Fold NACHT domain-containing protein.
Amino acid sequence: MAANVTTSSSADELFVLVIKNIKIHAPPEQPFGLKKWRNRQLYISASIEGISQPKKTKPLSAKGPHARWEETISFNLTQSSTTIVFSMMSKHLMRHDKSIGAFRESIQVMLDSGPHVIRDLAGKHKYQIEFDVAKQMLLDFTGAIVVGATDAVNNMDTVQPMADPPAVAEAAPTFLSSIPSDVKSSLESLLSKLDILCQVGGVLAEIHPWAKMAFNLFSTVYKVIKKAADCDQKIQDLVSTINEVFTFAQEAQALPDKYKQQKKTITVMLQQAVECGYFIEGYVGTGNFWLRAWRQAGIDTDKPIGDFKAKFESLKEDFKLNSILQTQLLCILTKEDLEATREIVTKIELKDIPYAYGAAFQPSKACLPGTREALLDEICQWINSNTEAQVLLLTGLAGTGKSTVAHTIAKLFNDTNRLGSSFFFSKSKENYRDMLFGTIARDLADQIPEVRDKLAKVVTASRGTLDFEAQFTNFLENPTEGLVASGPIVIVLDALDEIGDIYARGPILETLANRLSCLPSNFRILLTSRAEHDIMEKFKSPRLVQHMRMEQASHTHEDISHYIYSQLAPEGFPLEGLQPTDCQELVEHAGGLFQWAFVACDFIMAPAYPGVTRQEKFTQIVSQASSKSDEALNSLYRTVLTGLFVTNNPDQNAVMEKFRNAVGPVLASSQPLSMESLHALLSRPGTQEGITMDSLQCILTYMGSVLDGVTNTHEPIQPLHKSFYDFLTKCSPDDIFFIDLPHHHWRLCQGSLRIINTHLNFNHCNLKTSYKPNIAQQYNTPSPEVSYACQSLGHHLEHFQSSEGMKTSTKPSKLIKMVEDFLKKKLLCWLEILSILGKVYVARPTLLEVAKWVQVYNAGLQHFAEDAAQFALYFGIPIAISAPHIYLSAMAFAPAASLVALNYQTSVVNMLQVTQGRLKKWPAQQLVLHGHKYWAKSVAFSPYGKLIVSGSDNKTIRLWNAQTGEAVGQPLRGHHQVVNSVAFSPDGKLIVSGSDDMTIRLWNAQTGEAVHEPLRGHHQSVSSVAFCPNGKLIVSGSDDMTIRLWNAQTGEAVHEPLRGHHQSVSSVAFCPNGKLIVSGSCDKTIRLWNAQTGEAVGQPLRGHGDWVNSVAFSPDGKLIVSESCDNTIRLWNAQTREAVGEPSRGHKSLVQFRRAYLTDGWFRTPQGDLLFWVPPIHRRGLLVLGMGAIIPSYLTRVILDKFVHGDGWEQCFQQ
């Protein structure tokens, strides 16, 4: 896999930002080493805004006034105007690491003040960070690394070979002077050494996963080479080199402490051995296939072998000289790669593909070294095996440690650039599910250039689709098709049960279950979940899915014991206030639940509240412990909360009210919010209502054992485990700790409206020009509370409306006024924020929720909200690309009768003027539905207009919500070739389809299931199908030149085929009374048939000069309409069968006018700047006339003489 590449739209030269000699200075009153720092490890995290993964130093325990890190941090960049963020972090084993202080600054400003930089860290205490910074051009930098490494090795003294083992207490380890020439012997020797490293524990426990992985991989290589007729001499030399590198293994088993300082070097040795093993397995195991694939891709196979040998020689020297390893795993970047990278950096933009920032794995949440070794080994063996089962489903009860295992596997394979992507679902981030496949795709694009190239070609319209099948096809299946790579690519998806309820997660589970096998065979997908019935049903294929259960994992008891002792007795002695037997008692009570052990330890270790000792907290925990998993966790949560908040306080009710008011919004929020954001949303300035920061802090600050992010006011807060959410929301409503979620959705809904109405203003983010897309210019980032309010208003209104509490908790008069202000004063500003955030797709659903709620109280506001939803839908493309074009394009082309346009027309001035052809109302085309992989051949509305059915070239049928355009359920599969025609039954309960596979099928429109067997009888493609008005008969037309009638109940044919056409029958339809059938044919004729007898009625209707494509009756049955390839539409009298009037002409291809500046719907300047966006209905051809433009296909005239744009675009709005 290739190295990560940072992409940018700038054409700046690639350079490397190098940061080293990092030091933190503590204030005199808070030196490192105080009691508060005991057992805490610190590290530095540095990230570039816009890059998902930060760079981190290794954790260390600091003492005294300074903390120093020797590592060098570097970033490949193209723009020095971007911002870098430094954070000093405190490491935590089982929850989010904590930020102690941070600072952010423009890279250019930092470079200008360098090379030696000192900055204050923002935080509770006044820490300072000091470091050296430099900017080097990429080619110079890579050359300097090679030269520097060579010089360093050449300048070191040669270490003498060590003596016999008994006399080597202080000597450096030796390497064999000669190695076996036979590759099989070398492999046998290497395997014995790797087996020794697998057994080394104690201080070297962290190397175990890599040692085990290398052992298993080279065992496979050994078997492959034994079967091979001969082995390439280059491979023999490479194996011998690797074998020599690991000669130290036997001594490491006897004297592990001696190698404590070289854990990192040994780990990288093993990681590099794993990577090399993948290469050898592919090179030898699959013979000429890999050689052909590599050569076709232009890869010289001699070069990677030579590079691997050189890398191992370098590692050997690092180990001999006990140097601190700074280099990374082997990554080959040729000059051609670099040139390709430059082109990618400047041309490819993937930011409009949805990405769930914050959903990736967290290294700090990985397993404690030395725990879960057997389970991790088993998973790694599956990943590295040649198995058909590409998916592994790991299930377990709440609290058994599934997520910790997922974080660990993600970390292990991320360390060797083998992690394709990781995605951790969370109940508090249900909206992230829509971004799953986009996130995986962008992660893969960062690693694999071929994927990046193909992904960049995905059309813009397809990037925003919410259909999971289409996302999978566009973002994953197509970009990875034909991918050639050795070794596995790992994808980790954690907590499938937290995607949503059984209905919300159904479509995404269906897609995962059906489509993951479409990915290349070297992809390995690890899934974790509770064993919910619907999830187990989806992934029950034993051939494609391997299943593991946490309850069957070995050594769980020992692993929990290891964790509890590491927390409560870190030096072998219990913490002050605890007894020697307390740890073991907690181990017994944990009952195999890691989450129980974590909460219990954190509760005991937390600073004691007044009058309570550690021993008393321990007693509270064990006295309430239960043996059953759910009961055990619930009992533990109740014990912790009771100890914190249930006291002898005479004002106990007030304490619990504060508890509910603080914790309720944390659980109801659609994404985690900090205390500062919660306060901004829930406070009511100038009133006695709302919540104060003190009220939030006096509750949340003490809940660190169950909530993450409570140590300061600016970190997002969320439950550490889903079971805590379940405990508070699913207990009895009479329970003292019960959280009534609908009530808190209502509070957050009101808070969101207040933020929108009081904080937003025109050009809120200070965009400088209308010429550039949002992503191509600088702007002010919205505050967290503004971002949240704009995105989540609809979410909270939807969840509140679905509850019974709506009837008793609302204050319609007050809220109606807030809704009115939102719609009539802040709507366009709100759309600005959604545009900046890349969340325009939430606008229409939110407005429809507003319309649904307000319809009971104010019909006028309901109509306004519905019109606003149409506005957001019709102009979604320009709004999503550029916020200024809400005013410059959308308002200009909005229909004259649009309530939004009428309301804001006095405020939006100096726009382009549509003086001719302006729409009076919203056009018929409201939605473009994306979801079929190929052409959609046929569409039909359900009788009540709520659903649309479509048939496609991809052999599937899809149902769509006619209001929202969203796909309903999964595709209907059963046909084996193109689906040509679809229709609803008159009652809307059935769907009929005809296909090139010569069959007709019936489907249940509600369940999507097939109704009895396919209807067979035609001998060629079925081109058209229709129901009769009473729903009892189906008519079909076929390329076999016949028409057939079928009993819709039984599926049996009704009398003989109707014959008379001399070429394919292209279209059939019933008349409204069901007595006649009309058919059109490629023989250029239309025929009428008696539906009862099947006999032809009269002579064929002649007049068309080419194929007849479509026929239909008028609603009264008196007329027939036909459409032909001769570019005419004709009307016929159904009784006399004579033509009515002249044919309607006008289907010829439109004459194209000069279109020099109309591209992708945008009218642009010669430099490519955005002037305005043209709706599709006005778009076909463009003629520029001085200061005006004529768009002839819709006879539209646009006058530009008062049009403000570019840097002066803000003049379009007046207060």
Remarks:
- Residues 205-326 form one domain.
- The radius of gyration is 34 Å.
- Residues 263-285 form the longest helix (23 residues).
- The chain has six domains: 15-137, 205-326, 341-552, 555-645, 764-780+797-922+1160-1214, 936-1145.
